[in-house]
Specification:
The protein is an alpha+beta fold and 233 residues long. It is 15% helix and 27% strand. The protein is built from 4 helices and 10 strands; from the N terminus they run βαββββααββαβββ. The strands form 3 sheets. Strands 3-4-5-6-8-7 form a 6-stranded mixed beta sheet. A hairpin with a 2-residue loop joins β4 and β5.
Length: 233
């Protein structure tokens, strides 16, 4: 992608295994990539931590994960404003194959999201006074009403995090595209809203939309549609 998009840079963990290795469960590392426009964004530091107790910075698989899962972060300046972006992809099944709302799957979600919350609330990792606002984005593989997101919505528990969709809906219901983000390649089964953005430190959200437009005549470039959010400093 970078070879064909010279205006962009990217942060990610540069491991040895391919995406197909990861998809088939043979991975030794799990790529989560964040792209940025080089003429607008300056990256000051970046890294990857794995969704395992202690947030290790080398590939680590938790006992109940079907494959390694990680989060990639970057501290950057957008034009003249500092901000932090965290990108992740949490599990959709356990090592034993549990999925959906099973007790084992829910415990795994809680564990993985808990690692991210612990990382971002540790001042040695993220200091809002120095680093600016923070956004957590990703394929989180569960609908927003799941209890795993309780501390990531509406400033619950005083953590200061909000969900972009909640904010936009409160401001203007008509302006908030409430459509599903997972299209399952157009099949009726499994079309869900499982891609989310949570934020802290921005003044507001001015736009939230799911982009369903075809690109170059291709209806589905992915089994997910892009989720676009515009934040206000």
């Amino acid at each position: 992608i970078l070879n064909n998009c010279s205006a962009y840079g990217a942060v990610y963990y540069e491991g040895d295994s391919s995406w197909w290795d990861q998809l088939l469960g043979r991975d030794t590392d799990a790529p989560v990539v964040t792209f940025y426009k080089k003429d607008e964004v300056t990256v000051h530091s970046s890294g990857t931590f794995w969704l395992f107790d202690g947030a290790p910075t080398s590939p680590t698989k938790a006992p109940n994960q079907n494959q390694e899962r990680c989060a990639t972060w970057m501290k950057c300046t957008y034009k003249d404003k500092k901000m932090v972006v965290i990108n992740t992809h949490i599990s959709y099944k356990t090592e034993k194959g549990d999925t959906g709302t099973s007790e084992a799957m829910q415990a795994l979600r809680e564990s993985e999201m808990g690692v991210i919350k612990t990382w971002v609330t540790n001042s040695s990792n993220y200091n809002p006074e120095v680093d600016g606002p923070v956004v957590l984005v990703g394929d989180l593989n569960i609908n927003l009403d799941n209890s795993v997101f309780t501390k990531w919505r509406h400033n619950n528990a005083g953590d200061g995090f909000y969900n972009a969709r909640d904010t936009m809906y409160d401001i203007d219901k008509d302006a908030c595209d409430m459509g599903r983000t997972f299209n399952n390649w157009g099949t009726e089964n499994g079309q869900l809203t499982i891609d989310h953005q949570f934020y802290k430190g921005f003044s507001s959200v001015s736009s939230y939309s799911v982009d369903r437009e075809p690109y170059a005549g291709v209806t589905y470039l992915s089994d997910h549609w892009p989720l676009s959010v515009v934040y206000e400093f």
